[in-house]
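Weekly modeling sync, notes
Attendees: S.R. (lead), two postdocs, one rotation student

Agenda item 3: backlog of single-chain predictions. S.R. asked that every request posted to the team notebook include the full sequence so nobody has to chase files. The rotation student volunteered to paste the first one in as an example of the format we agreed on. Action items at the bottom.

Example entry:
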Amino acid sequence: MPRIVTPMDYWANAMQLGFVLAEAQGVIAMRFMGAAGVWSVPKTENSRMLNEKVFAFVKGTSDASLAAISGKSPDVVAAMAIKPIRQATRANHRRLTKRGLKRV
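Predicted structure, as returned to the notebook:
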C-alpha cells in the first residue's frame, strides 16, 4: 500500500529549499568578499565553484529521475532533486565560514 502524502511532506521540501537559498546567499557573499580580498578563500575557489554546481545538479537530476521512474510520490522526487544541492550549499557555507576574514 503506498504511503499517503501529507502537506507536511511538501513543507519539508520547502524548508530544505529555504535553507539552500539562505546558505547560497552566504556563500555568494563570502566568495565576493574573497574576490575583493576581504575574506580568506583558497585560490581554487573559482574552479571549485563551477565543478560542484555541475556535480550537484547532475546528481539531483539523475536521482530525481530514477525516483520518478520507479513510481515514487512527487514529494520524494523533489526531495531527491534537492538533496545534493543542499549538501553542497551546507558544506560550502560551513567551510567558508570557518575561514573567516583575511588577516593582513
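Discussion: group reviewed the output briefly. The radius of gyration is 17 Å.
Action items: rotation student to repeat for the remaining queue; S.R. to check formatting next week.
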